[in-house]
Structure formats: C-alpha cells, structure tokens
Design goal:
The protein is of the alpha+beta class and 210 residues long. Helix content is 51%, strand content 13%. It is built from ten helices and eight strands. It has helices at 3-21, 33-44, 53-63, 75-86, 108-119, 132-138, 154-169, 174-183, 189-192, 204-207, and strands spanning 26-27, 48-50, 70-73, 102-106, 140-142, 147-152, 186-187, 200-201. The protein has a three-stranded antiparallel beta sheet with strand order 1-3-2. A three-stranded antiparallel beta sheet has the order 4-6-5. β5 (140-142) and β6 form a beta hairpin. α1 crosses α4, α5 crosses α7 and α7 runs antiparallel to α8 (174-183). The termini are far apart.
C-alpha cells in the first residue's frame, strides 16, 4: 500500500468511527497503538486533531471511563478524504490497459469539444456512452506533445465520434476528420439512424470528407 493510500485509510477510519460514536471523536479503544501513531503523524500535517485535556475529560464523562487518547478529522482531513474518494484514477502503465480498451490521444481542441459533449448529458437525445464522462474527467495530459490521453472502449470511441460530428455540424470539421484519420472511426447518421446510438463507420473514405 502506497503512503497516500495508508493516509486515506486512516482518515476513513477516523471518519467512520467518529460518525458512529455521534460526537465525532475516535477513542483509544477503537484504534490499535500503531494506528494511533499514524494518526499522531497526521496531526503534524494538519489532517487530524488530538483531543486536549478538556475534550478528554468530557469524553471520559460520556463514556463513564478514563479516555486517554482521542482524535478526529480537521476540516483539511475531511476534505482530503472526500477528494481522495473521488480522485482521478491512476492511468494504467503502457501495456496494462484493459484488453477491451484502446489508448486515444486527443489534441486540445478535440478535448474541448468532447468536454462540451459530455457536459450535455441529460439534455441530448443520444447521450454519451456509459463511462465516457468519467474518462474525460480523469484524462491525463502529456504537456510535452499537448495530447490528452484516454482509454476507451469501442462503444466510447463511437460516442466520441458522435460528439465530434456534432462539433463538425456546428462549426469545425477539423476535430472529427482528425479522429477519423487517426482511429478510423466516424459517425454516420445514415447508418446509425435506425439504431439511435452512434456507431462506428470504419470506411477510410469517410475520414477524408470535408
């Protein structure tokens, strides 16, 4: 387990036990000494607060026993945990992407168009493919070559082609043409009309259409 994963695990334990107790504090009987030491380290980072003498006295009265140690999340610890639970997922190393996914690299203007497309989820009659919004949110950027990297299923590839087709129909064909040229996937309204969701059209001739 990496260091940040250990930190999140400790923060999560403090959060769960504090909520279960009702008063927000995790008590000495609820964490083993090694875990208490980890919490002590988090205090130095401003993520956890250790109970002072007055707090321990109040907790002792509530518990009916001496409470010698207690801790709870600080606002910074709470926000670190909240963000950590929703953080962008780590990008798979080269060669370790799921077998049903393809690595796709988009130029900034393609990525901008795709963000508009997934942002319209709920308003479109043909919505983005499942999981495409998450891929867009967690995409990483290689600033050296100015490319956004995503790992897409074939269904998501077709959905990207549809989003870029919408972009093409309302102003610029560059993004859709480039996607077709590099990945061989374009949206064909005539072919997809009867099915509803956009589908891939892998005929090379369509890629060069202006």
């Amino acid at each position: 387990m990496r260091n940040w994963e250990r930190v999140l695990a400790v923060l999560e334990a403090l959060c769960e036990r504090g909520q279960a107790a009702g008063h927000g504090w995790t008590l000495d009987t609820e964490l083993l000494p090694p875990h208490q030491q980890q919490v002590n380290a988090l205090e130095n980072q401003g993520l956890a607060e250790l109970a002072g003498r007055e707090d321990r006295a109040e907790l002792s009265a509530l518990e009916g026993r001496p409470v010698r140690w207690a801790a709870r999340l600080t606002p910074y610890g709470h926000d670190t945990l909240t963000y950590g639970q929703c953080r962008p997922r780590a990008e798979p190393p080269p060669g370790e992407a799921a077998s049903d996914r393809q690595v796709v690299e988009l130029i900034p203007s393609q990525m901008a168009a795709l963000r508009v497309f997934v942002g319209l989820t709920g308003r479109l009659r043909v919505p983005p493919a499942d999981g495409l919004g998450e891929q867009v949110r967690t995409a990483s950027c290689d600033h050296g070559i100015k490319r956004w990297r995503l790992h897409l299923t074939q269904e998501q590839m077709a959905s990207v082609a549809y989003g870029l087709w919408l972009h093409r129909m309302t102003g610029s064909a560059t993004e859709a043409n480039r996607f077709a040229r590099e990945y061989g996937v374009v949206h064909s309204p005539a072919r997809a009309g009867d099915e509803g969701p956009p589908g891939p059209d892998r005929q090379p001739a369509a890629a060069g259409a202006k």
